[in-house]
Amino acid sequence: MTEKREYRMEELARLAGITVRTLRFYRERKLIPPPRREGRIAWYDDHHLARLRTIAALLDRGHTLNGIAELADAFDHGRDVGDLLGLGEPTEETPVRLTPEELAARFEGEVTPENLAAAMDLGYLGTDGDELVHISHRLLEVSSALVREGIPLGEVLQAGARVREHADALAELFADLILRHAPEPELHRLRPLARSVVEAELSLALDRRIRKGSDRAEDA
């Protein structure tokens, strides 16, 4: 087990590459959590160091201190990874651990407090110490790809919420079908069949939608 390290203010500032005055300013702005106090001595730890490095990375990417303060508040009050994963990790999806600056790099200019809160409300993101955990590598890759195509992250998240509603309804439909004819354990074994049906139907629906668009273009 790694021993927890603690630092005095001067050492923390040196390791973070900032001045003591800047560190005090960040603390006053609540950009970092309060230190542990032992009498008149303030002790900082690796969580503070990670937060300071995150602030530096976000500043380099053009975020303002006001924006970073709002992000820090959303981060500190978001659901933790235990709430996100519930009783266990997803059966087929792979969670992804990210630092706040890595998340900002994936969604350039789109990681706002509002979008962060929406992603946490959807259950896409949770917090674990100084890291964020995205519940699905596939969803993370798809959403970042859509943003790179010029679609605002806020609209991607709104679409995700609507897809979630339909997906829940489809899962309920399939579960009811199976449980009418088989015991509960069979639901887990047969779940790949449900996914294949949904993927095939979505593929056919997209074909129909694309053909409809092509027909309209030809008639114009």
UniProtKB/TrEMBL annotation:
Pfam families: MerR_1 (PF13411). It comes from the Bacteria. Gene3D superfamilies: 1.10.1660.10. Residues 6-74 form the HTH merR-type domain. Keywords: DNA-binding. SUPFAM superfamilies: Putative DNA-binding domain. PANTHER family: HTH MERR-TYPE DOMAIN-CONTAINING PROTEIN, REDOX-CYCLING DRUG-SENSING TRANSCRIPTIONAL ACTIVATOR SOXR. This is MerR family transcriptional regulator. It comes from Streptomyces ardesiacus.
